[in-house]
Design goal:
elongated; alpha+beta; five-stranded antiparallel beta sheet; 37% helix; 3 domains; 15 strands; single chain; 12 helices
């Protein structure tokens, strides 16, 4: 005689503990965690629907972290026996991809008309808003101009507006509404008119009902109103874009960018910590003694850039030769920006992969950029390096600690904790007057940064002056990842 099934909503028996859990790995799915997640979310008619079970926190080997919960964690259970439970933790994050493409001559002409139409809509709406406010103090929005734009398309003199997809105009007006919202909130200046000779960009929606006919990862991308484009697929996308942005830089290069929701697998946990001192002589000096060296991306191209700008200044305004000279100047700037971005991405990725806890200083980038070393500060890209460390630490399960900028990390001896009276910027090596230890300025600062950020729990020896170190350990002001 079989027992009746429990009523719907009734609690399960409490005797079903860890040993009684049944495996939840679905049949027919195999492979690495990334490939398995792709199979789970891939639409298929022959695959049975899968129910993912969320287990209590005590069953996870990986510590639940606030940044994982903020980024929508997806726990997946892969195998289970009486002694252990293995699980992988995926972080669903919005990742932007920027790919270069090469349009043909016909597509270049179409893009030029699209850029011009979008620019005309922006400038016309901005002029209309400004005039309406000056006349009677009235406030109009992009929705009001959109109604008039629909009426203008029916006129013969504005028939060229129909050549550009309507979603482009909708995105332009939406961007202008956001620009005015930032202006009234005090976050930005008054919106400006767009020019023809600078970088151009348009954004359009991808119809999700027919997106499979317009996009295949690594194979095909059809842009509305433009057709298939020759994209250089440099990396797998692992997602479906909902909107694409087409951009033409001042150097004449074309890029397409979009955001997709992708599963990011955290890196294996490590047990080490590192303090990082950022500077201009060496971009990064770690508490382990490693130095990244000086980046001279702009310095290497400075002479070529000065010569190209001199040639540009001698060309007549409006001439074709001036346009060619301006494009040459833009190409040099693009090479400098590309080399700097490549260097910073490789450096930040290496730091995140090799260390579990990363401690940095809260430097004032704007204040440094206004000083005598403003050109070197801008060339180093310290603010961009911090931004990359923050989001990569969030993705890969690392702990990023930011200490207060007023901590005297360069003046305090990392061996005994005694603080020196003065430490001019030109002093690169110094000897502690109390313990006699010879210090490299940047390495000593990195050791102090690590000690302040971790409160002496990793990577450094116990200081002799406990009182001085106890005062320094109170300088943690921001914890990006708990």
């Amino acid at each position: 005689m079989t027992s009746d099934p429990p009523a719907r909503g009734a609690k399960r028996s409490e005797s079903r503990g860890r040993e009684g859990l049944s495996p939840v790995r679905p049949s027919g799915l195999s492979g690495s965690p990334q490939s398995l997640l792709g199979q789970l979310f891939q639409p298929s008619s022959h695959r049975q629907p899968l129910r993912l079970r969320r287990l209590p926190d005590r069953l996870f080997h990986l510590r639940r972290q606030p940044h994982l919960n903020k980024l929508s964690p997806v726990p997946l259970i892969f195998c289970h026996d009486r002694l252990r439970l293995l699980c992988y933790y995926f972080v669903m994050a919005m990742i932007a991809h920027k790919l270069r493409f090469y349009p043909d001559s016909a597509q270049e002409a179409l893009l030029a008309r699209m850029f011009g139409s979008a620019r005309w809509v922006w400038n016309s709406c901005l002029a209309w808003r400004t005039a309406a406010y000056k006349l009677d103090g009235g406030s109009v929005t992009g929705v009001d101009f959109s109604r008039d734009l629909t009426w203008l398309k029916a006129l013969d003199c504005y028939a060229w507006l129909k050549d550009t997809p309507a979603t482009v105009y909708a995105q332009v007006l939406r961007d202008q509404d956001k620009a005015f919202a930032n202006f009234f909130a005090g976050r930005a200046k008054y919106p400006k008119f767009k020019k023809r000779r600078v970088e151009q960009a348009i954004r359009m929606q991808m119809d999700q009902r027919t997106v499979m006919n317009c996009y295949r990862d690594g194979e095909l991308l059809k842009i509305p109103g433009l057709g298939p484009v020759d994209v250089r697929w440099t990396r797998p996308i692992n997602g479906i874009p909902k909107a694409v942005t087409v951009r033409r830089t001042a150097a004449g290069r074309y890029f397409v960018s979009f955001m997709v929701e992708t599963a990011v697998e955290p890196l294996p946990q490590r047990t080490n910590a590192v303090g990082i001192d950022m500077g201009l002589g060496d971009i990064v000096v770690t508490s382990d003694g490693a130095k990244s060296g000086r980046s001279r991306h702009f310095k290497r191209k400075e002479k070529a850039l000065a010569r190209a700008q001199r040639l540009l200044s001698r060309k007549a305004k409006g001439s074709n030769r001036r346009k060619a000279a301006a494009a040459k100047v833009a190409r040099i700037h693009a090479k400098v920006a590309d080399s700097r971005a490549d260097y910073l991405h490789k450096l930040s990725t290496q730091i995140v992969r090799d260390n579990q806890v990363i401690v940095i200083e809260d430097l004032s980038m704007k204040g440094m950029a206004r000083g005598m070393l403003s050109k070197s500060v801008a060339d180093a890209g310290l603010g961009e390096l911090r931004r990359q460390l923050e989001y990569k630490a969030n993705w890969y399960g690392r702990d990023l600690v930011v200490i207060d900028r007023w901590e005297p990390t360069s003046k305090v001896c990392s061996a005994c904790g005694v603080k020196a009276e003065a430490m001019p910027l030109g002093v690169r090596t110094w000897t502690c007057g109390d313990c006699g230890t010879n210090h490299d300025r940047d390495h000593n600062a990195a050791l102090n940064i690590l000690m302040v950020g971790t409160a002496g729990r990793a990577g450094t020896a116990t200081p002799k002056n406990a009182k001085a170190r106890g005062e320094a350990s109170s300088g943690v002001t921001a914890l990006a990842v708990a």
